[in-house]
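Table S5 (text form). Sequence records supplied for joint modeling of the two-component complex.
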Amino acid sequence: MVGFLAEYMFTVIYLSLFVNLGLSLFGLFYKPHYVKKLIMLGVLGDTLNMFAIFLGYRAWPSPTTPSRPPILLTYPFENASVLVEFTSRAVDPLPQALVLTAVVIGLAVMVFLIFLGDNLFKHYGTLDMREIRRLRG
Amino acid sequence: MLRELAFNLLGVFLPVTAIVAFATPLLGKARRRAPWALAMFAALFVAVTTTVVYAAVAVGGRPLVYPFGGWPPPIGIMYEVDAFNGVLGLLTGWVILAITAYSKWYEKEMDEPVWYYTLLVGLMVGLLGCLYTGDAFNLFVMIEVLSISAYGLVAYHKQRPEAVEAASKYALIGAVATNMYFLALVVIYGNYSTLNMADLALVGRAYAASPLPALLAVSFSLWVFTYKAAVFPNHFWLPDAHPEAPTPVSAALSGLVVNIGVYAVARFLYTIFGYNNALGLYRGAVLLALLLLGCASALLGAFMMLVQRDIKRLLAYSTISHIGLALMAGSLGFAAAGGALVLALTAMVAHLVSHSISKATLFMASGVFIHEAGSRDLDAMRGLGRVRPLSAIAMTLSFLNLAGFIPFVGFFSKLLMYQAFLDAGLPVLAFVVILVSAVSLLGYMKPIYSIAFSFKKGAPVTSPRVELVDVLLVAMSASLLVLGLVLGLSPGVFSQPALSLTQQGVEDYIRAYLETRKSLGGPYG
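The corresponding structure-token record, covering 662 residues in total, follows.
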């Protein structure tokens, strides 16, 4: 079972991210309702964040032993091999920093888009983008 | 001395303007005049910064690097200014100063100026951040800062249904496009393990054999850049969003925000994935595609301009046309090299400068006439040039500049473009430039005629009035003439920005980065 998880789950999740990406783009462009578009935008943003997290992912060196968090517990180090072992199992922190930034920005954009949706409903009485067509484009 | 001052200003302008942006809502409630004063302070600070930075870069002849927090560059964020983004920054700083000064006059149309000024300062931060940053992820953050401010400003008149509709369409697709740029960054980081622009240009040399990830990254990121620049087929939001925004914001969006898209395209296709062969043969294909898209939007903008009756929509379509022309010149890198390429890039920079100043002037002048007429319809504005003569003069001069009359800077930028296309062996494109100019001249004649030259029958005779904004507008349009004379007398003025996108310029860009990395004790020596 552990072997199955280690070998296949990664691929399954990875492929499902691509499916997610396609579905969210489809929803964004073909669903007429504004709120559905916003939901799909949220899905798109989260999918891309997952991609970034996966980029920094590093598989635990031996799948059968339980994993430990990548923290240096002793200082000073007895020898350099502690650092070598640490870097071999630590994930890349930069994608996580990127994702943190992107999540905050995504929240700001989403809040603003919801505010616009509220105003759209006040003016037009609907959120169906097919009926909100006062401008010629 | 100058360089040291420029270095410090480059680091400090961003936090200072951001603090001003956040201080505006806090202080603006207490005093009525505070928001404008704060925004004016930020704009002056930005104008001084951009001037000093450009002077230092132009005099020193090498790029200026500011590593934030003293982190050695590939690890920390750095801002890097060469002559290309330096001159665009200089342009942005002074045009945004004029726009902020004009906003004082426009305040009578606003119910809550404090939020307007908050967003305007946010727009300043975003514009300068996008231009000066030397880090691809920081570019993403700054594009988002710019975008959110722009969406908010477009929706500023939220009691108007059209404004909210335009902003929602602009913001929704814009959010998707910026998300796609994030995906491009994921691909870039996964492939090259760095996000620093100069570092990407450097390590890209080792990836000449595998250009596919670079192609993926470039094609994802080009969506947001062409969206910001409103290049066909991503232009659909612009004719809605720009007219619906408050007039000074239309000037900022049409004059400055679209430049960011062209700048980022040039930065990606010349500096990052340019001469290091990281894109391989695909670079030519991408540039050719951009050339065709630029061609299409130049023609589309020019023809759509003919059928407009709303002055702000007419100006919006003119923006699409001119950005298309600038992109055409900028994407000539696949067919031209050496002198012809420098000529084409010079034409792009000169055209961006000419278009920015004159389009900002035109939108601001149109604001004056819209205020007098109470409508955006050109027919309602007949004869108003006699009421506001100075604005009418400024508007006519700017239209002449856009149409490319001697001795305006617009003439020389089109001449350079024409020459570059001929030198590159593509006379068809030179013909397109002439066709676009001819068609758009017809479009420009309509507002010039109805505002400056025609009479309104039975209108009461009013004596001409001159306010401070009229003087500002005339000063801006006079700067077009001055620039034209400068460019005509010494054609080398704009070649320094263009040279920083050539192979030697990219070498200098990388060397400045390596020096900073070394002096801060960065990795790999």
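Note: The mean pLDDT of chain A is 84.
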